[in-house]
Amino acid sequence: MDALLRGLAEAVKLYLLPGSLPLLLLAVTAGLLWWSWRPGSSRRVRAGLGALAVGYWLLATPVVADSLQAALASGYTRLEDPVEAQAVVVLGGGADVLRAEAGSLSIMSDASALRALEAARVVQLVEPAWVIVSGGPGRDPRQADSVPLKSALVELGVPEDLLLLDTSSRDTHDQALRLEPLLAELGVERFVLVTSPSHMRRSMLAFQGAGLAPIASVAPAESQDPSRAEPPRWLPSMNALQRSTDVFRELLGLVYYWVRGWL
Description:
The chain has a domain at 87-222: HUPs (Rossmann fold, 3-Layer(aba) Sandwich). 52% of the residues lie in helices and 13% in strands. It has helices at residues 2-15, 21-37, 42-59, 62-72, 110-126, 146-155, 172-186, 197-209, 238-260; strands spanning 87-91, 95-100, 103-108, 130-134, 163-166, 191-195, 215-218. The strands form two sheets. Strands 5-4-1-6-7 form a five-stranded parallel sheet, sandwiched between helices. A two-stranded antiparallel sheet has the order 2-3.
């Protein structure tokens, strides 16, 4: 049953997420096939394809993407004032792998980089005894996602002797389960949890489901670099479409975790 649920969730994530390219291609192909098979249904096919185009246009606009993300992250913000916490836990956000004849190179994703920036800010604010970086192997099986994230934190000024790595966690649920005994061993009763806005709700619920009570601090959703400025709020962009897709991916994750009883 577990394998079936996991396979179903992976299939939906790969092919049926609103805003994703695979869903767009599948829907357009299905519409064209139906049109060719039932010539009399051209009006309905045109209406369906038109609705699909409008839906994707809306999901690709910054105003809609930001609204979806804000709704999912409602109730969670970045930490603004010092709190009593013995640790900061930052969750890895994946890495991209580039391959050529000379080998392969793992590059930290934008999500991981933004989480590193937020974690470094929180460390200065909280002055914890420990900074725990969590993330196992992702697209690159030879290297855990937490390794480049740790290097980024050191580069941002976090003392290396504060850093501890969790290099074996496979997903958010696994991170919560593996960190619970580690935090207990370290005597950590209060800690700040850093992750992306769309990922925070599932992370908080997963950690609470493991008997933990983290304090949320949401990382920025996008870089504030002026060179990455988006078009006007009602014009589409690939970055905004990706943010919308990330929201639907997280909603799928919440449903999956609820079905598994992990929340």
